[in-house]
């Protein structure tokens, strides 16, 4: 992964999202660590997210996923963040970002968020524990039954625990995987985006 690429994208998007932050991390809410831009490039080029989609970024941190995908695909995006200090960083980025008008940020716990009917794409980079994930998935499924639509869930760098749970959810169907292992050294098999679907087009 090139630090130059990370810097250049931040500069192009007019945001500041680099660096890890584990100030408020605990056993349930994991540290802030931005998704590498090279991974987001693969996701944006996959065709799964388009202009008429709306992405929910669970544990959005400083908003990198939201700003990048909104810029590259012209989708709308909503970032959910529970840490007030990091949420403020996302809002500050929104003021300067080239794609800020298509993004929104909410200071809220992920497991309490009720989806709107137009929200149909969800992104996760291991933001929280399996206990919280169960509650979040339950709300996503609840939203699907209230407003049936094709919904895609993207899991970057998924843990074995996440995968084992997701494979047991009846409403979820594994549909594809975006390989990212070649982008990094070490042949880490977790370097991928697993895609699950609820409903059909």
Describe the structure.
The protein has one domain (3-198): Vaccinia Virus protein VP39 (Rossmann fold, 3-Layer(aba) Sandwich). The protein has a 7-stranded mixed beta sheet. It has 6 helices and 7 strands, in the order ααβαβαββαβαββ. The chain is of the alpha/beta class. It has helices spanning 3-13, 37-44, 64-73, 84-96, 130-146, 160-166, and strands spanning 54-58, 76-81, 103-107, 121-124, 151-156, 173-179, 192-198. It is globular.
Q: Secondary-structure map with pairings?
A:
Blueprint (H helix, E strand, L loop, with lengths): L2 H11 L23 H8 L9 E5 L5 H10 L2 E6 L2 H13 L6 E5 L13 E4 L5 H17 L4 E6 L3 H7 L6 E7 L12 E7 L3
Parallel strand pairs: 1-2, 1-4, 2-3, 4-5
Antiparallel strand pairs: 5-7, 6-7
Helix pairs in contact: 2-3
Characteristic terms for this protein:
201 residues; alpha/beta; Rossmann fold; 7-stranded mixed beta sheet; 6 helices; 7 strands
Give helix % range.
25-40%
Walk across the major sheet and give the strand order. 3-2-1-4-5-7-6
Write down the CATH topology: Rossmann fold
| pLDDT < 50 runs, ≥5 residues | none
The major sheet is characterized as:
7 strands, mixed
Main structural class: alpha/beta
The topology string of helices and strands comes to HHEHEHEEHEHEE
The CATH architecture would be 3-Layer(aba) Sandwich
Task: Let me know the number of strands.
Answer: 7
User: Shape from CA axes?
Assistant: globular
Structural Rg: 16 Å
The pLDDT mean sits at 92
GO biological process, one term: methylation
Keywords: Methyltransferase, Transferase
InterPro entries: SAM-dependent_MTases_sf
Organism: Ruminococcus hominis
């Amino acid at each position: 992964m090139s630090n130059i690429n990370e810097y250049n994208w931040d500069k192009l998007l007019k945001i500041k999202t680099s660096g890890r932050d584990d100030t408020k991390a605990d056993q349930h809410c994991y540290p802030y660590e931005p998704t590498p831009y090279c991974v987001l490039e693969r996701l944006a080029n996959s065709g799964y997210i388009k202009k008429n989609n709306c992405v929910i970024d669970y544990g959005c941190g400083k908003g990198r996923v939201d700003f990048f995908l909104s810029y590259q695909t012209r989708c709308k995006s909503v970032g959910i963040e529970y840490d007030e200090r990091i949420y403020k960083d996302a809002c500050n980025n929104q003021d300067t970002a080239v794609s800020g008008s298509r993004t929104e940020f909410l200071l809220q716990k992920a497991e309490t968020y009720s989806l709107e009917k137009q929200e149909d794409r969800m992104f996760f980079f291991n933001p929280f524990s399996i206990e919280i994930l169960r509650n979040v998935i339950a709300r996503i499924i609840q939203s699907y039954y209230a407003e049936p639509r094709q919904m895609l869930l993207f899991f970057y760098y998924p843990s074995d625990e996440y995968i084992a749970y997701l494979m047991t959810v009846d409403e979820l169907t594994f549909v594809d995987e975006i390989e990212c292992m070649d982008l990094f050294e070490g042949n880490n098999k977790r370097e991928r985006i697993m895609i699950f679907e609820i409903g059909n087009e």
